[in-house]
């Protein structure tokens, strides 16, 4: 027992292991101060300063030229043809123009700050609360001094070239919005009218419902209970991309489902819009236009995967959850003499999000 106590005391008296760092709490931390200031070449040579300023505003003007080139490329290489080569050239040259414009602005700004702006270190003491009027006046003076040090007000070429570059940099983005607008032509005089475009699709009386994308017509007898089929107008399959295949498909896509007839709660004016429990609704979500392509067979709910809007197929595709503002437009359907499903008419309301409507 005595030996154990002696060993325990020796361990307790042993010094703690050292980390290898010698720390003295009595010695204060010495402020190393600032390193001696080294003047830049532009500070010592006025000619170097002029060259640096010339480089800065030249880069700003190059940025403006690149932005203008991006706009010109949008016009020179139009994508309306639908040809892959035209689309590639359009993306390539517009992208190069925008990239060059932003890169030139960035390089010019960095070179301006490193070579032209004042290069003086200073220490600004903190204050704990809002300062006095003298302090506020001093704050204003800081902006005056910053303007003087940066040369923003004095170096007019640098300042004006920056304004030109920044103003020109937004032009490509504004120009690209033009591609989102509809284009009219002698063959399609109403193509520039958004109300007409959204209210009229390829569906018309007698148009057969066809599988997407094969274009094979659909017989009512072939649809099983609980099935959901992606549908396009039969004539759409004959269109090429040059003839507006994607544009027409974006408006006319439909989801076709078969339920028990007694499961449908139809209003009197829509009882003939379905056929033997088969209903057709637009796939374009009324929130922001995503494809409503998920069908829950047991609940008869349609789900938009983008923002989780849900529509009840048994109750005229009414919104039951999510941000969508109105039900999905229903396509009136029936069958022809051969048993194929056909449209009774076009949609009776504009397809897509509510904000697309222009009435």
Automatic annotation (TrEMBL):
Its main location: membrane. It comes from the Bacteria. InterPro entries: QcrA_N, Rieske_2Fe-2S, Rieske_2Fe-2S_sf, Rieske_Fe-S_prot, Rieske_Fe-S_prot_C. It is found in: Cell membrane. One of its GO terms (cellular component) is plasma membrane. Its cofactor is [2Fe-2S] cluster. The chain crosses the membrane at residues 59-79, 91-112, 162-181. It is a multi-pass membrane protein. It holds the Pfam family Rieske. Keywords: 2Fe-2S, Cell membrane, Disulfide bond, Electron transport, Iron, Iron-sulfur, Membrane, Metal-binding, Oxidoreductase, Respiratory chain, Transmembrane, Transmembrane helix, Transport. Residues 1-25 are annotated as: Disordered. GO terms for molecular function: 2 iron, 2 sulfur cluster binding; metal ion binding; monooxygenase activity; oxidoreductase activity, acting on paired donors, with incorporation or reduction of molecular oxygen. Iron-sulfur subunit of the cytochrome bc1 complex, an essential component of the respiratory electron transport chain required for ATP synthesis. The bc1 complex catalyzes the oxidation of menaquinol and the reduction of cytochrome c in the respiratory chain. The bc1 complex operates through a Q-cycle mechanism that couples electron transfer to generation of the proton gradient that drives ATP synthesis. Belongs to the Rieske iron-sulfur protein family. This is Cytochrome bc1 complex Rieske iron-sulfur subunit.
């Amino acid at each position: 027992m005595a030996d154990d106590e002696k060993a325990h005391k020796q361990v307790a008296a042993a010094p703690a292991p050292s980390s290898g760092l010698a720390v003295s709490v009595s010695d204060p931390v010495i402020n190393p101060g600032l390193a001696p200031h080294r003047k830049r070449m532009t500070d010592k040579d006025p000619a170097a300063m002029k060259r640096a300023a010339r480089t800065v505003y030249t880069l700003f003007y190059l940025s403006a030229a690149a932005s203008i080139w991006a706009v010109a490329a949008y016009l020179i290489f139009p994508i309306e043809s639908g040809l892959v080569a035209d689309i590639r050239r359009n993306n390539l040259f517009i992208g190069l123009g925008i990239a060059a414009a932003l890169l030139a602005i960035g390089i010019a700004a960095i070179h301006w700050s490193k070579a032209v702006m004042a290069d003086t270190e200073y220490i600004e003491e903190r204050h704990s609360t809002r300062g006095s009027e003298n302090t506020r006046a001093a704050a204003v003076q800081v902006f005056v001094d910053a303007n003087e040090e940066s040369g923003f007000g004095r170096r007019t070429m640098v300042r004006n070239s920056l304004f030109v570059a920044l103003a020109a940099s937004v032009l490509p983005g504004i120009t690209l919005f033009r591609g989102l607008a509809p284009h009219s032509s002698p063959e399609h005089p109403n193509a520039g009218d958004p109300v007409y475009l959204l209210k009229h699709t390829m569906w018309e009386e007698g148009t057969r419902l066809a599988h997407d994308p094969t274009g094979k017509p659909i017989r009512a007898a072939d649809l099983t209970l609980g099935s959901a089929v992606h549908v396009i107008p039969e004539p759409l399959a004959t269109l090429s991309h040059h003839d507006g295949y994607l544009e027409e498909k974006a408006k006319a896509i439909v989801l076709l489902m078969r339920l028990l007839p007694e499961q449908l709660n139809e209003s009197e004016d829509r009882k003939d819009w379905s056929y033997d429990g088969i209903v057709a609704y637009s796939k374009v979500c009324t929130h922001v236009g995503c494809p409503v392509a998920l069908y829950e067979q047991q609940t008869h709910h349609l789900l938009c995967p983008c923002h989780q809007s849900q529509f009840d197929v048994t109750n005229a595709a009414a919104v039951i959850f999510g941000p969508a503002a109105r039900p999905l437009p229903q396509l009136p359907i029936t069958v022809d003499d051969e048993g194929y499903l056909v449209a009774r008419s076009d949609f009776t309301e504009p397809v897509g999000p509510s904000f697309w409507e222009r009435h």
